[in-house]
Design goal:
Among the domains are: 2-74, Double Stranded RNA Binding Domain (2-Layer Sandwich), CATH 3.30.160; 86-176, 2-Layer Sandwich (Ribosomal Protein S5, domain 2). The protein has seven helices and nine strands; from the N terminus they run ββββαββββαβααααα. The protein has helices at 57-70, 110-119, 134-146, 151-158, 166-176, 215-218, 222-225; strands at 2-5, 12-26, 29-41, 46-54, 73-74, 86-90, 93-99, 106-107, 124-130. Strand 1 (2-5) and strand 2 (12-26) form a beta hairpin. The radius of gyration is 44 Å and the shape is flat. It starts with a strand and ends in a 20-residue tail after the last helix.
Length: 245
């Protein structure tokens, strides 16, 4: 279950990993109490974990979120993956985190996945050993992420030149074989289809082969109506021919 928490600087996302229920036997029966294990992160390199207890589930989640916000830590990432492999232990649980090439995704169980996704990891391989207790796994993954260092930090600490790391080589290969963006296809030109006249249609509709009368055809010619008419001259009878002398 994911929930967005409004923070002053930026928005945090909260995920409830597990809900625990305990019962206390009293004189009147049993009294239940709940505990919530919560992971909080911004998916941009910050993550925190918290555990809270209360008589109700919502109150327990709220307490755990307050504890997780106080335990936020900045994690060093490299283009959506880890800068190097690391193994961390907490209690009887051991978690191994390995960087992966772009497009691999987060290969992990539900508990460790919640921590990696909320911190902003997109490509990572994981393996857990020992106990499967959720509290131990979350704590082991959290401790391992907090110990990550960049190549520059390690070079400054050891006073040596590391060169190109294996993670950088994998990232270069991933960029080389990444699918290129394909331009949107140009839509084909469509020609209008002339509708054929239907047989036995409306009688008032114009017949096939004849165009419908337009507005200009319907307007009477007023100039021709008001033109003055000139009377024709009467026909003169033909004069009889005079006889020749």
């Amino acid at each position: 279950m994911s929930e967005v928490i409004a923070e002053e600087g930026h928005a945090l996302e909260s995920t409830t990993v597990k809900i625990y229920r305990t019962a206390t036997v009293v004189k009147g029966g049993r009294r239940f109490n709940f505990g919530a294990l919560v992971v909080v992160g911004d998916r941009q390199g910050s993550v925190g974990i918290g555990y809270g207890k209360a008589p109700g589930v919502p109150a327990a989640i709220e307490k755990a979120q307050k504890v997780a916000r106080k335990s936020l830590k900045a994690v060093t990432l490299q283009e959506g993956t880890l800068p190097h492999a690391i193994t961390s232990r907490y209690g009887a649980s051991v978690v191994k985190l390995l960087p992966a090439a772009p497009g691999t995704g987060v290969i992990a169980g539900a508990t460790v996945r919640a921590v990696l996704e909320l911190v902003g990891v997109r490509d990572c391989l994981t393996k857990s050993f020992g106990s499967n207790n959720e509290k131990n796994l979350v704590r082991a993954a959290f401790e391992g992420l907090s110990k990550l260092r960049t190549k520059e930090q390690i070079e400054a600490l050891r006073q040596v030149d590391i060169g190109k790391t294996e993670v950088e080589k994998r990232l270069d290969v991933g960029r080389r074989f990444a699918p290129k963006t394909i331009a949107a296809p140009i839509p084909a030109k469509t020609t209008p289809v002339k509708s054929k006249p239907q047989k036995g249609g409306d009688k008032n509709s114009p017949k096939a082969g004849k165009s419908a009368p337009t507005a200009e055809d319907k307007v009477p010619d007023t100039a021709a109506e008001h033109e003055p008419t000139v009377p024709k001259p009467p026909d003169t009878p033909a004069s009889p021919e005079s006889p020749s002398p």
